[in-house]
Write a structure and sequence with these properties.
About 35% of the residues lie in helices and about 20% in strands. By secondary structure, it is α+β, with helices and mostly antiparallel strands. It has 3 domains: about 170 residues, FAD/NAD(P)-binding domain, CATH 3.50.50; about 110 residues, Orthogonal Bundle (protoporphyrinogen ix oxidase, domain 3), CATH 1.10.3110.10; about 110 residues, Protoporphyrinogen oxidase, mitochondrial, domain 2 (Polyamine Oxidase, Chain A, domain 2). The protein starts with 8 loop residues before the first strand and ends with a helix.
């Protein structure tokens, strides 16, 4: 698909993965188009950043992406990076969950929301006998016939009981979305579980059937037939995805250190004004910034749209990474990491055994550990000064992983206001945003605030936005 009647000049604002994917898709589909990619910071990638230091490869935020959505693998393939993909270490795929400062394996086959195997649920020390009995009742509970959105907390408690919610689902989902589960929308985050309830009457029944089918079909297979683990990363770090995307853009496309302060529709075109610059004229604008920034830029143009965009709340997180000699860590590091229930009162949301999950990330004999803090559970921790944050995290890791001595390497990254919160009603909010945005010629939105926070979803958001914008322009050109 290429577009002959395309806008001549497009401004993409925000060079995170969403903005870069949008700009790259335009160059693929309409190579004659002139693109300007405006980025406020002096580097590309938004929250994605890899550091190579002292022999360690540290991901400062996202550290891998899921392969069950096709868009990440697909882009990696088009960029010629397939041979740089790294799968999770098969020997360390289990996840632990904390209970009273001790780590236990998640029951084998427990996938995000529901069990696929009964025996591991029956014998897990993470749940009480009553909690297990209540979870088993899920098989018999009639499905709800209500179509309305509901909170993740409400849904899981309704189906599987309070204990499965508090001890398994809440920590697993908080570790991904950094969200308050009492507010997190089921339909915007994990709608397939509502669908399972609807179709099969029970999540457990649905999950077990699905697992059987997947085993037969061989899941996580790309179009070339290659098999992948559920998560993958890149051997040179996720920044290599950003660098490769940027290298595919025509010279002169990227404007770093350039914060866009104003956009305005003028006589069928768009004027884009960056700080300390003269306005520049474009045929179309893609806003790939966080949604609240898009909302502020659109305030003079469409007040209700701006209000809806500002209505998508964001929470902050921080990642504390530490390295130790293997001999300093007494806890067996035979897993990918651990998640922490909110009721444990720990300063850590989740921990990742970074150098076990992906073997290339630390020199032999060293252990690299990442701790994820903040989110809706403890928003103040996202911006806590390192002198306070690091000792807090270290004390907890020492306790839980039985670590002796001090880290031999440490680095902290703060990400305030970067995690959009998909609260109950998010789908309606996004539908309203899309309707108003589509009514404004030459304007499009992309980013993690709308249809998914993960890297593949952001890539899809950027690419789809670019495709639709070019399609709209082509249709208008034919009229
Ligand atoms: C700590 C953390 C861990 C994560 N872990 C994972 C993971 O393991 N796997 C996964 O798939 N996903 C993960 N995610 C989610 C995923 O990384 C993000 O959702 C995604 O990278 C966001 O990309 P984006 O381009 O939409 O937004 P951003 O990366 O926020 O990019 C937006 C860009 O817009 C720029 N900008 C803002 N205002 C302006 C302006 N006025 N003018 C010009 N530029 C502007 C910003 O500087 C920024 O570069 C994680 C996120 C965080 C924060």
């Amino acid at each position: 698909m290429t577009h002959s009647t395309s806008p001549q000049r497009i401004a993409v604002i925000g060079a995170g993965i969403s903005g870069l994917a949008a700009a790259h898709r335009i160059t693929e589909l309409a190579p004659g188009c002139e693109i300007r990619l405006f980025e406020r910071q002096n580097r590309l990638g938004g929250v994605l950043a890899t550091v190579h230091e002292n022999g360690y490869q540290v991901e400062l935020s996202a550290d891998n992406f899921i392969t069950t959505q096709p868009w990440g693998l697909d882009l990696v393939g088009r960029l010629g990076l397939k041979d740089r993909l790294v799968q999770t270490n098969p020997a360390c795929r289990r996840t632990f969950v904390m209970r009273r400062k001790r780590l236990y394996s998640l029951p084998d086959g427990f996938l995000m929301m529901a069990p696929t195997k009964m025996w591991p649920m029956a014998v897990t020390p993470v749940l009480s006998p009553l909690g297990k009995l209540r979870a088993g009742l899920e098989y018999l509970l009639p499905p709800s016939r209500d179509d309305a959105d509901e909170s993740m907390a409400g849904f899981v408690r309704r189906r599987l009981g309070r204990e499965v919610f508090e001890r398994l689902v809440e920590p697993l989902v908080s570790g991904v979305y950094a969200a308050d589960m009492e507010k997190l929308s089921l339909l915007a985050t994990l709608p397939r579980f509502r669908e399972m309830e609807r179709q099969h009457g029970s999540l457990i029944r649905a999950m077990r059937r699905q697992m059987k089918l997947q085993r037969k079909a061989g899941k996580h297979v790309d179009e070339s037939g290659a098999r992948y683990s559920m998560f993958v990363t890149l051997a040179d770090g996720l920044s290599s995805l950003i660098d490769t995307l940027a290298a595919r853009l025509p010279a002169g496309t990227v404007r770093l250190g350039t914060s866009v302060e104003k956009i305005a529709p003028v006589d069928g075109s768009w004027q884009v004004t960056a700080a300390r610059s003269q306005p520049e004229t474009f045929d179309a604008v893609i806003l790939a910034t966080p949604s609240h920034v898009a909302g502020a830029l659109l305030k003079p143009i469409d007040e209700p749209l701006s209000r809806d965009l500002a209505g998508i709340q964001h929470e902050g997180t921080a990642i504390v990474t530490m390295a130790f000699e293997d001999s300093q860590v007494a806890h067996p590091m035979n897993g990918a990491g651990f998640v922490v229930p909110g009721i444990e009162g720990s300063p850590i949301l989740a921990g990742s055994f970074s150098s076990r999950k992906y073997l290339h990330r630390a020199p032999d004999g060293k252990t690299l550990i990442r701790a994820f803090v903040g989110g809706a559970r403890a928003p103040e921790m996202a911006e806590m000064p390192d002198e306070k944050l690091v000792p807090l995290v270290l004390a907890e890791l020492r306790d839980v992983l039985r670590i002796s001595g001090d880290p031999i390497y440490q680095i902290t990254a703060h990400w305030p206001g970067t995690m959009p919160q998909y609260h109950v009603g998010h789908l309606d909010l996004v539908a309203r945003i899309n309707t108003r945005c589509h009514a404004i010629p030459g304007l499009a939105l992309a980013g993690n605030a709308y249809d998914g926070v993960g890297i593949p979803a952001c890539i899809h958001s950027g690419e789809l936005t670019a495709e639709r914008l070019l399609q709209r322009a082509a249709t208008q050109g034919q009229q």
